[in-house]
Design brief:
Blueprint (H helix, E strand, L loop, with lengths): L5 H12 L13 H4 L2 H4 L12 H13 L11 E2 L1 H10 L4 H14 L5 E2 L1 H7 L12 H15 L3 H13 L4 H16 L6 H15 L4 H14 L5 H14 L55 H14 L10
Helix pairs in contact: 4-5, 4-6, 5-7, 8-9, 8-10, 9-12, 10-11, 10-12, 11-12
Length: 322
């Protein structure tokens, strides 16, 4: 369906509308990017997810035993580790798995036993010491994030390459970069989250293998950007207070006024509207002062830090003793 242009899709609308046409379309792309809004509103989308490794393993076992439509007549014996390896690198695609089994069968003597290394050699793939569910996966993911945090783009790119070749879902890499952009860069470079989010969206539109370039661009930017975890520490500090019973009353002048009798009880009385005072006016926003956001004097965050000091006279503010 993604090959239909807008005019072609619009031409289908009348017949779909009056029931003369039942449209069944398929696409390997994100339909929201290729199907027009008018056509989308008249259709239902069903997402066919990739097979998991257990399902692919079962497909391989059936193919090896089936003498009529499979490879059973060849009496091949492929070790379980080899089948799991093939399932791992099939990326959820049963057809890819079956093609690899046929390639292995074509190069193996009748009745032979195939090991993991022999299977990899037959299909022309090196065995990457990294499977999606093994320790090496988590080691590479950890090293990738720590390399970004350590401002080493070369190391970050290397570990990204290891994850891609090891069969990791590139969306996992994109998600980790979005989290990293806020957790470890934050306001030190306010464009970082935009870069990471754009890379994630572009990945969905472009797909692999071309999206490797987009992911690499985002990774090198994040690794090279100034770092601050001030926002991460701020929310965790505030959550810690709330979870430990530090429940401050909302000051009366900040309370909501959009309900009956609010004015009678003086809700919102005394609130100063900042836009009536040039964009800022000093007033109390917490029942007692707390210091959560401690900006770093680096990158864009230094400018925010200086502005907060200019507005409030000091930043961070001194906390009041309860």
């Amino acid at each position: 369906i993604h090959r239909f242009n807008k005019a072609q899709q619009d031409a289908l609308l009348p017949d779909i509308e009056n029931g003369r046409l039942i449209l069944i379309g398929a696409t390997t792309h994100n339909p929201s990017a290729y199907v027009t809004s008018a056509l989308a509103s008249r259709t239902h989308f069903f997402e066919f997810l990739p097979l998991n490794e257990e399902e692919l393993f079962a497909v391989a076992c059936i193919a090896l035993k089936d003498s009529d439509r499979g490879l059973g007549r060849l009496k091949l014996e492929i070790e379980e580790t080899a089948l799991k390896f093939l399932a791992n690198i099939s990326d959820g695609d049963a057809r890819r798995l079956l093609n690899m089994l046929e390639l292995i069968a074509a190069s193996a003597p009748l009745g032979s036993k195939i090991s993991r290394d022999e299977a990899a050699k037959s299909i022309g793939t090196k065995v990457i010491l990294h499977d999606k569910d093994e320790d090496a996966h988590y080691d590479c993911a950890s090293a990738f994030i720590k390399s970004l945090r350590g401002s080493d783009p070369d190391a970050a790119i290397y570990y990204m390459a290891r994850m891609i070749e090891g069969g990791d879902d590139p969306r996992f890499i994109a998600r980790r970069m979005m989290i990293f952009a806020s957790e470890d860069i934050g306001n030190a470079d306010v464009k970082a989250l935009l870069v990471a989010t754009s890379a994630s969206q572009a990945l969905e539109l472009v797909g692999m293998p071309e999206a490797r370039i987009i992911l690499a661009q985002a990774a090198t930017y994040l690794a090279s950007a100034p770092k601050s975890n001030a926002s991460y520490e701020a929310i965790d500090s505030a959550l810690n207070d709330v979870r430990n019973g530090k429940l401050l009353d909302v000051p009366n002048h900040l309370r909501g006024t959009g309900y009956r009798d609010a004015e009678k009880f003086g809700r919102g009385e005394g609130y100063k509207y900042p836009h009536s005072h040039g964009g800022f006016v000093k007033q109390k926003y917490l029942a007692e002062d707390r210091s959560y956001y401690l900006p770093k004097e680096i990158g864009d965050e230094k400018r925010l830090f200086e502005r907060l000091k200019a507005l409030w006279g000091e930043w961070p503010r001194k906390e009041e003793k309860s």
